[in-house]
Specification:
Belongs to the Orn/Lys/Arg decarboxylase class-II family. By secondary structure, this protein is an alpha/beta fold. The protein has helices spanning 12-15, 17-27, 35-46, 64-72, 82-91, 109-118, 128-132, 134-137, 174-184, 203-218, 244-257, 269-272, 305-309, and strands at residues 29-33, 53-57, 76-79, 100-102, 121-124, 141-147, 169-170, 187-192, 224-226, 262-265, 276-288, 291-296, 315-317, 327-332, 341-348, 356-359, 380-383. 30% of the residues lie in helices and 23% in strands. The strands form two sheets. Strands 1, 11, 12, 13, 14, 15, 16 and 17 form an eight-stranded mixed β-sheet that branches. Strand 14 (327-332) and strand 15 form a beta hairpin. The two termini are 24 Å apart. It binds ligand LLP.
């Protein structure tokens, strides 16, 4: 039967189909996360020989069970707001503070002061804090986020380097950085860069590593290089994913070239995207001339990625995996915007009210970016 949806055979949700159907029917819409997939993703990254520490970027998904699981597996956490740090501390009160990175962007002074007080590793991503609040950092050890100049990723909106991006200290400000570091009495122990999200070519991290390691030789106090996150996952059937063996080889090469530097990474999507699906029950069917619509119980209020980035999420009718896909349809949610399309021109079997559709790779930036738009609650979350 699975042959009708070729290319999905290896996905965890085939084994959990009955459980997913039951959740979909009971709740109408649900994010479901698979613990064993989460676990194996974390294990795979933890097993990379040349990486000294993996920090999970919890902006992708801050479900408490996911944080507990990753903590048990030895991961740290990368946070971008005080609330994210507090969330980690609430769920894992005994966590070693050194396992939390705080990488804010244009945050108010109070968040920096708070993080330093908590003993959390802080990354500055521009020179303003050092210029405007030098006393805050005197005697402290911090990281600096560098804009290496090359933004990468699946969409313009997620490329976080280059002159058009608001992130990082540009290379042409390095002299100024050095003198501010000296005058404020801060010690830079780490350099960080994140070029973007949804990247498949390992040259991205090779070039970040080379740039930062070269810079580390100049700023003598640097002991750690954080290569950022951004590891992509395939979104379309048959699309090749990142090859971890290539990633490992690239890391080994960096280690050999720059011995003595610790190498860190901070992925979000890679750890959680494929471990999550969004289930949504069919509410109504409609034909408008040649165009067919399948309406489902939730839309851009749960998953905004298609509307925001034109992102692709595979969609299957979980109630009818055995049936031949013969109709081209638009899968739409109940939100009052024409952009509320979860999938345009998809090939699906003829569907009926009550069927459960599965929207794949929804574990990252799904619920995390959801909203109550139209006062429609986003789908609830379940861990199985
Ligand atoms: N580190 C930093 C400093 C970041 O800004 C990000 C993501 C990450 C790590 C984790 O990136 P990842 O490994 O998940 O690609 N909402 C977009 C993605 C935005 C990512 C923002 N920063 C999406 O749904 O594709």
């Amino acid at each position: 039967p699975i042959g009708k949806v070729r290319g999905t055979e290896g996905q965890w949700w085939h084994q959990r189909r009955e459980e997913l159907l039951a959740l979909g029917r009971e709740h109408g819409a649900a994010f479901v996360y698979d613990r064993s997939t989460l676990q194996s993703r974390a294990e795979a990254l933890q097993a990379l020989p040349g990486i000294d520490a993996v920090f999970y970027a919890l902006k992708a998904n801050w479900h408490p069970d996911i944080l507990r699981l990753f903590h048990d597996q030895g991961l740290g956490f990368e946070c971008v707001s005080q609330r994210e740090v507090e969330h980690v501390l609430n769920i894992l009160p005994d966590i070693d503070r050194r396992r939390i990175l705080f990488t804010p962007n244009f945050a108010p002074r109070s968040e920096y002061a708070w993080a330093l007080q908590q003993g959390i590793v802080l990354t500055l991503d521009n020179l303003y804090p050092l210029k405007a609040w030098p006393n805050l950092f005197t005697g402290r050890e911090i990281f600096i986020r560098i804009d290496t100049g090359h933004g990468r990723g699946h969409h313009d909106k997620v490329r976080t380097a280059g002159v058009h991006s608001k992130f990082g200290v540009p290379m042409f400000e390095l002299d100024e950085l050095e003198s501010l570091v000296e005058s404020s009495g801060v010690t830079v122990i780490g350099l960080h860069a994140h070029a973007g999200s949804g990247v498949f070519n390992v040259d991205n991290w090779a070039s970040i590593g080379t740039t930062l390691a070269t810079l580390a030789r100049r700023l003598k106090s640097v002991r750690i290089v954080d290569l950022g996150g951004g590891l992509g996952v395939p979104e379309r059937l048959g699309q090749p994913g990142i090859v971890l063996a290539d990633f490992a080889a690239m890391i080994e090469a960096l280690r050999a070239a720059y011995p003595g530097l610790a190498l860190w990474i901070e992925p979000g999507r890679y750890l959680v995207a494929e471990a999550g699906v969004l289930l949504a029950q069919v509410t109504q069917l409609k034909g408008k001339g040649e165009v067919h619509y399948i309406g489902v119980a939730t839309g851009m209020n749960s998953l905004i990625r298609p509307a925001l980035y034109g992102a692709h999420h595979e969609i299957l009718n979980l109630s009818r995996l055995e049936e031949a896909p013969t109709e081209i349809v638009n899968v739409v949610g109940p939100i009052c915007e024409s952009g509320d399309v979860l999938g345009a021109e998809r090939l699906l079997p003829p569907s009926e009210e009550g069927d459960v559709l599965l929207i794949a790779t929804a574990g990252a930036y799904g619920r995390a970016m959801s909203s109550c738009y139209n006062l429609r609650e986003p789908a609830r979350e379940f861990m199985i």
